[in-house]
TrEMBL record:
It comes from Streptomonospora litoralis. This is Maltokinase. It comes from the Bacteria. GO terms for biological process: glycogen biosynthetic process. Pfam families: APH, Mak_N_cap. Residues 11-98 form the Maltokinase N-terminal cap domain. Coiled coil: none annotated. Signal peptide: none annotated. Belongs to the aminoglycoside phosphotransferase family. GO terms for molecular function: ATP binding; kinase activity. Monomer. Residues 113-136 are annotated as: Disordered. InterPro entries: Aminoglycoside_PTrfase, Kinase-like_dom_sf, Mak_N_cap.
């Protein structure tokens, strides 16, 4: 390993966005290093291959470089270490925290030197106009007709993120994808397909570079620039406030509580249905063949097997989960499929002055991109959001001395909002979740098993949340 690779081997596993927690890092190799700004400070985009248990995952690092001793105190937390560049020692750091360098990314997006285009589509990425000359290694591309305003200072959004999002002034969010999969990121693909929808933040531009796959260079999305919803409040925060209000008055029913969330849950259901309808209009749809249905059930079983090996507390429920997946495999009605959100939960939606807006169409961050691009049942998203109501009701009980006393309120809150969301979804033109219980149950279990793995790797103190839900669902 080079000196920089050694530093990254220590730094990457400690980052919130590192998806490989739970297995030791065996190798770290810089696959590509693209200089964007030479000099002091310098900026490079690195594609870093991290080897764990014999397989390789790629990550993006935006590397800032400054002469040793010149990193300002407010950037000290972003330091990766000191290493030699061009014969001189440099402090290297996470450039996403340095507004002087991130301003240059916005400038390049405004210039759009990689060309203008309509909505990008999957399968090989977008061809560049032939008049554009040889492709630069890193391309800054804009959607047709978009003008990007520069000169705004960026801040990194704080939170439990799988990626790193920068907010520029009050106008833009630049989301830098951390785990890279060769190809068009579904977040960009779906957001661009829904560009005219009032339920998504408008996409403006993106950054891409070629990443190698099976000997070919595949245009791969590194970051996406979209509208910053400045009046927005996170759905998770709103739901948590409602739950907190209820728990402060344990004798009161959720319907009578001042902070009742059911109206919002119903509107969210309707917004979700509208987005599903728009996705079905804009992108290919199909019907799941019996064979594909069985394959899907097998992948659920496989996830269960993996999760039970890693988290043995899941074992007592494995039988019930397996039966639910087997019942799913036997469903003999045609199941419509289409592009869906894929990792839908309350943290992926924001409430703006004009209604709910859906974010982060990337799908499950740990799944290969081909899998995330595959059409699926919209009930998978419905199940994701139903799980999220359960999470919102349960998480304030983790470690609480009043957990047993508040459990009935938690159940009542989750049930009320799950029902409201489902009826809003059906009313908004989506398939009625009530009428597809076998399918819905399998997706809900599968999501909860995914969450068991997610919490075991990222927030072990929250592992009880999906485990307790599975216990309750299986009772
Ligand atoms: N365009 C936006 N406008 C306002 N807030 C946003 C926007 N994009 C993201 N956020 C906020 O950042 C959080 C994380 O964004 P998200 O795209 O889900 O990132 P990740 O994929 O890393 O989880 C969201 O829950 C939301 O609160
Ligand atoms: O938002 P991401 O794409 O990073 O999604 C991952 O992280 C989520 C947590 O931030 C995780 O969601 C789980 O926790 C949420 C509360 O924090 C809860 O609302 C969700 O229902 C629950 O699944 C998500 O699963 C993961 O992919």
């Amino acid at each position: 390993m080079t000196q920089l690779e050694e530093l990254l081997a220590d730094w990457i596993p400690r980052q919130r966005w590192f998806a490989g927690k739970g297995a030791p890092v065996e190798t770290v190799t810089i696959e590509a290093e693209h200089p964007l700004v030479c000099g002091d400070p310098g900026l490079r985009v690195l594609v870093v291959d991290v080897g764990q248990r014999g397989s390789i995952s790629r990550y993006q690092v935006l590397l800032g470089l400054r002469p040793v001793g010149t990193l300002r105190d407010e950037l000290a937390h972003a330091a990766i270490g000191v290493c030699r560049f061009g014969g001189a020692p440099r402090t290297v750091y996470d450039a996403s925290h340095d507004p002087e360098l991130t301003a240059l990314l916005l400038d390049r997006l405004a210039q759009g030197d990689g060309g203008e285009t309509d909505a990008p589509r999957a399968a090989g990425g977008e061809p560049r106009p032939s008049s554009a000359g040889p492709a630069p290694a890193v391309r800054f591309r804009r959607l047709s007709g978009i003008t990007v305003r520069t000169g705004q200072r960026s801040l990194v959004l704080k939170g439990e993120q799988s990626n790193t999002s920068l907010v520029y002034g009050e106008d833009y969010v630049l989301k830098a994808f951390r785990r890279l999969w060769p190809g068009l990121n579904p977040d960009l693909e779906l957001t661009a397909a829904l560009a005219d929808s009032p339920y998504v933040a408008r996409p403006y531009a993106w950054i891409e570079a070629d990443v190698g796959k099976d000997g070919a260079a595949v245009p791969t999305t590194l970051a996406m620039l979209q509208e910053y919803m400045r009046s927005a409040t996170d759905g998770w925060v709103l739901a948590a406030t409602s739950v907190r209000d209820l728990y402060a008055n344990p004798g009161v029913s959720p319907a009578e509580a001042g902070g009742d969330f059911a109206g919002e849950a119903e509107r969210l259901g309707a917004a979700t249905a509208a987005v599903h309808r728009a996705l079905a209009r804009e992108l290919p749809t199909d019907v799941l063949t019996p064979r594909a249905l069985r394959e899907l059930a097998s992948s659920m079983l496989e996830r269960l097997r993996l999760a039970t090996t890693e988290v043995p507390e899941l074992a007592p429920y494995a039988g019930v989960l397996r039966s639910a997946y087997e019942a799913f495999a036997r469903v003999d009605e045609p199941l419509p499929i289409q592009r869906v959100h894929g990792d839908y939960h309350l943290g992926q939606v924001v409430r703006t002055d004009s209604g709910w807006v859906l974010l982060d169409f990337e799908g499950e961050p740990a799944a290969p991109v081909e899998e995330r691009q595959r059409p699926s049942s919209p009930l998978r998203d419905v199940a994701g959001m139903l799980r999220s109501f359960d999470y919102a009701a349960r998480y304030q009980l983790v470690g609480s001395a009043s957990a047993a006393e508040l459990a009935p309120s938690a159940r009542a809150w989750a049930q009320r909002n799950r029902d409201a969301f489902s009826s809003g979804y059906a009313f908004g033109g989506g398939i009625d979740p009530e009428k597809h219980q076998t399918v819905l149950r399998a997706f809900e279990y599968d999501k909860a098993v995914y969450e068991v793995l997610y919490e075991a790797h990222n927030r072990p103190s929250w592992l009880r949340i999906p485990l307790d839900s599975i216990a309750a669902l299986a009772a």
